[in-house]
Amino acid sequence: MDSALARVEALSNEKVHHAGDHEGPFSVHVLGLGPCGAAVISELAGSGLPGFSAVAVDVGQGSLSGLAAGGSVRAVELPIPSREDLSSALNRYREFLKMEYPRYYWNPNYEPWLPGDLEIPASGAEMSRAVAKAVYGAEYYQNREITEALDGFAESVLASEHTPLVVVAFSLAEAVGSGIVVEIARHLSSIKLGRRPWVVGMGVLPQEVDATFFPVINELDCMIDTEKNNGVMAVWGDLYKNPFTGGFFVVPDDGVHSPVEAIASFCSVRGGRDLYETLKALNWLAVPGDQWHPAIRGQQSDRWVNVLVTRPLEEVDSLAGVGLVEGFSTEYAEARVFGGGKRATAAAKAVGAAIAGVATTRVDPVVETVAADNEFVGVVLPRASKLDLEMFVPARAAYDAIEDWEEHLLMHSWLLDLGVMLCEPSIRFDGMGGECIWGCACWVVVPHAAIRGETVVSVVDELDPAVAVSG
Asked: What does the alpha-carbon distance between residue 95 and residue 138 come to, in Å, rounded to a whole number?
């Protein structure tokens, strides 16, 4: 029996991912970004979760006005800065990064990544990912309210009497959420929490194809896929290590079923126990073949995308609209039917066939019925790649159709402060990814074809990452 099949059968037959008597109870803590993240917090705030704490963050959009902040819930609305104030902060960015990371290379070619003539959007106006990143960075590095809020949030997580599970919730379609998550997740996970608790991402898929989705998903791909992430860290250091230590879920938005309710329901049911067991299963699937232990945190491959779907008990006969390409195949899938009685029994019988309609698995889908007050069905389809997402290729085509360089720049976020526009080819190193926006030698040791989701013809292993910071 091969090791992958053995791991799958250990999940389906031996239930190695089920929490033992020595595990739990659990506490759920949420960092909600943008309107979507704030809505998730609103759903969870009244759920009675033990030890619950949350911080909602947005940038001058007014989306947090309806959030009942107070007690364990805090709302931080980052103000829209003046052009002068933002320029002053961006001009100091090398100082900020040097204080954060002493090994940071002081690039003499550095310039702020925002074009000098770019107008800062007014409060409530549409904002690009690159601008959202700049606003967040200016506030965080100058020790303003968001810095204090993250410190307090981390303290509540680490002080929890229960096993903490940290969820970072946002929409992949919202510029603010997707634009600041690449910074705030690493600040929280790698710096404030010291990579100790599990931090899991929950990103809501867009309803419609948009060119911005291409850099959004690629930045996450180069964060979470271990091989690509190693290629980023080879140049820029371990501060850029994948912050999502527990894994990452995408949640489809089919326009009918609320993705916000899906996240809130799955995170809160049974006090977070089922979320914990699911994370344990996902990490078990990703551990090396010679290190089988359910406590090990798996090394994610390019198949890091885990699809989370919830449905009412009466609507599990079809999982149409989950956002996966036809013919998607994975090793394992699990459905949990929460509730009891005849309706739950009927749902348990139907959901297996519904899973088979959207995914092929090496073993039959696992369906468990769990007694719970909140009645619904949660389905996890694990280990998809970005190419398994229906909108990846159309988003790439939409991105390619845009010829304006500045428009491409403003769609990016993650590595702009280092001079890297991830989705464009390297200037200096043929076949590699990451165009240097300053015209020097900033890059990432990731083939450009791998970023684009195309066949990698060759990889130049002999390239010395040290030359990337030679200017």
From this structure: 12
